[in-house]
Amino acid sequence: MNRKKLPSYIMLFLPWLTIPFVGKKSFIRFASTASLANLFIILLSIIARRKRWWKNKNPMFPNGPDFSYILGPHFVTTLWVFKLTYGSFPKYLITNIVLDWINTFFLARIWERYGFFKFKKVSSNIYWGINIILAIILYGYHYTLEKVINNKKFT
Questions:
Q1: What are the TM regions of this chain, as residue ranges (predicted)?
Q2: Is residue 33 predicted with pLDDT exceeding 80?
Q3: Are 119 and 108 a contacting pair, CB within 8 Å?
Q4: Which of 49, 58, 86, 98 has its CA 20 to 30 Å from the CA of residue 115?
């Protein structure tokens, strides 16, 4: 294994150690929403690469999205946030605002200091705003999904 890629592998696999604590029922309930979130982030990453909004200097796969972040902490955190806050939109939104702030303004600076990631043509504020809008869309998606599923159970 390439030593330079070791942080990417740790970022990918470490969050998955918490999945047993999410529980099977919650995992199944929220996995499609977390997968949709990942799809949005993958598409955003492809656009960002073309427009040079940011630079991922240590991707697992060259010229691709940062799957170590997307499939690791992003997916797992999305599951945890929905498990802990779904049913209370204000709690969900505040949790996302805080976690996205930490990710965008604190962790991104740490990754930049170590040479893994750098914002270029997009500001941290814009990226943070995009993530908040994504969080709102995901909550609406999951709310609608559960309404449809629950209606089919009773018909």
A1: 6-23, 30-47, 93-111, 126-145
A2: yes
A3: yes
A4: 98
Task: Name the residue range of residue 51's domain.
Answer: 28-59+70-153
- Tell me, yes or no, whether 48 lies in a domain: yes
Residue 74's nearest CA partner among 91, 96, 54 is 96
What predicted TM-score, i.e. pTM, was given to this entire model? 0.91
Rg of the chain on CA atoms, in Å: 16
**Token representation of residue 137:** 């869309």
The verdict on residue 140 lying in a domain is: yes
Q: Does residue 15 fall inside a structural domain?
A: no
Number of structural domains found in the chain: 1
**Of 146, 109, 137, the residue nearest 41 (C-alpha):** 137
Retrieve residue 17's tokens.
């150690």
Query: Contact, 69 vs 131, CB < 8 A?
Result: no
Maximum Cα–Cα distance for the chain, whole Å? 56
